[in-house]
Amino acid sequence: MSKIQMDILGLSTSPSSGGAYALILNETDGKRRLPIIIGTFEAQAIALELENIKPPRPMTHDLMRNIIQSFNTFVKEIYINDLKEGTFYAQVVYDNNGETLTQDSRPSDAIALAIRFNAPIFVSDHIIDEAGIESDPQAEEHEESGFSEERGTESPAEEESPPASSKESRIKMLEKNLTTAIAEEDYEKAAKIRDELNRLKS
């Protein structure tokens, strides 16, 4: 069974899953994608690190990283190794003073750790064959122009851009609000503000 390296394409809301999120992995050297439904908390943990938002206190996965590092250990890679009855299974592969060990994990937790260690993400080829989706080049072009990676929503193309002066004022106000939201640990609000900032700056 071979491993296929994947990159994080983004997060999108999944209305059919009760407000959960779909984490979209994209084949590094191919066109296939793998959506994995994850919870809100895990999506937040992944989005914060992807967006380089640093909370004033460590989140759960930040604490896990700090504990792992305190034992002179680091995460080498994560491996999504099985799919049973619609549920994905993963392993965290880490180096413990030169010895390679594995730990069973949910894919969402494993990926949240992987991005904190800059570790590669691998998926078993049989999972990609079974649950992967072939990407559409035209859809990719559409996503690049109107897709928010963190939230997976389309930017309102029909909305007119504000004048330069009001746009700059809006950006300054949003940056101030973002700082406040992070200080208050309101990460859902911070994520929405970051989305708006990225849209205005692009």
How would you describe what is shown here?
- The protein is α+β, with helices and mostly antiparallel strands and 202 residues long.
- It is globular and about 55 Å long.
- Strand 2 and strand 3 form a beta hairpin.
- 42% of the residues lie in helices and 31% in strands.
List keywords for this structure.
202 residues; alpha+beta; eight-stranded mixed beta sheet; 7 helices; 42% helix
What's the SSE blueprint?
Elements: E1 3-14, E2 20-27, E3 32-38, H1 40-50, H2 60-70, E4 73-84, E5 87-96, E6 99-105, H3 107-117, E7 121-124, H4 125-131, E8 133-134, H5 137-146, H6 164-183, H7 187-201
Parallel strand pairs: 4-7
Antiparallel strand pairs: 1-2, 1-7, 2-3, 3-8, 4-5, 5-6
Helix pairs in contact: 1-3, 2-3, 6-7
Structure summary:
This protein is α+β, with helices and mostly antiparallel strands. The chain has helices at 40-50, 60-70, 107-117, 125-131, 137-146, 164-183, 187-201; strands at 3-14, 20-27, 32-38, 73-84, 87-96, 99-105, 121-124, 133-134.
**Mean pLDDT level:** 81
Number of helices: 7
Question: What is the β-strand count?
Answer: 8
Give the strand order, joined by hyphens, for the main sheet.
6-5-4-7-1-2-3-8
Cα gyration radius (Å)? 18 Å
General shape? globular
| Low-pLDDT runs | 142-162
- What's the helical proportion of residues? 40-55%
The computed structural class is alpha+beta
Please describe the biggest sheet, giving its number of strands, its sense, and whether it closes into a barrel. Answer: 8 strands, mixed
Strand content: 25-35%
Distance between the termini: 42 Å
Order of helices and strands: EEEHHEEEHEHEHHH
